[in-house]
Amino acid sequence: WRFYVRSICSAGDTSDWYGYAEQNFGYCTPAPTSVDEGGITNVTFGNDIVVNDNVTKNNGLYQNRSAMIGDMFAGTNVEVNITYATGYTYGTIIWVDWNNDMDFEDEGEVVYRGECANNNPTTLVASFNIPVSAPLGDHRMRIAGADSYFDSYVSSTSSYPDPCFSASYSM
Q1: Intra-chain end-to-end CA distance of the chain, in Å
Q2: Cβ burial, residue 6 (10 Å; 0-12/13-18/19+)
Q3: Which backbone phi and psi does 152 adopt, to 5 degrees?
């Protein structure tokens, strides 16, 4: 949402409109249009199983698993195991909303970029460090994979991958 502000002192006595402010009312929802085979079928980090699905072909599109919580500690390295059942290489991005501002667009919120092998199934072992400055509490993590959509982002740390993408052969 965007809104502008102005003063109204009396009828006919108003100020100019000033700037605009933006308000975000929730995380954006990716809208992938298709997925290869079973997509992401399992995700674990630390000792926590986050996702363990027996998904069927084209049923692995975006899923909100924010109710699942894992315990990690600031200043530590987190290993994330992501199992794909695709038979294709998938560019993989992991975001963490460290400041809980309802987006993944701030400096340091892309925590991993990589690519899985094309075996079916295959498990990508990703890892990232939790900043020492990360505030205590829950932080949303988003994992996305795509057959070719993320290729340029995986190899470039200067470009910013869209956490709200809409592409084919992605999850």
Answers
A1: 27
A2: exposed
A3: -70, -25
- Quickly tell me which residue has 């109710």 as its tokens: 67
> How many other C-beta atoms can be found within 10 angstroms of the C-beta atom of residue 43?
24
Beta-carbon count within 10 A of 126 CB: 21
For residue 4, give both structure tokens: 């502008």
CA gap 115, 25 in Å, rounded: 32
pLDDT tens digits for range 4-51:
677 788 887 888 777 666 555 688 888 888 878 878 888 888 766 566
Strand partners, 49: 44
CB atoms inside a 10 Å sphere around CB 33: 11
pLDDT in tens, 69-127: 777 889 999 999 999 988 998 889 999 999 999 999 999 999 999 999 999 999 999 99
**Beta sheet of 110-115, edge-to-edge order:** 110-115, 91-96, 141-146
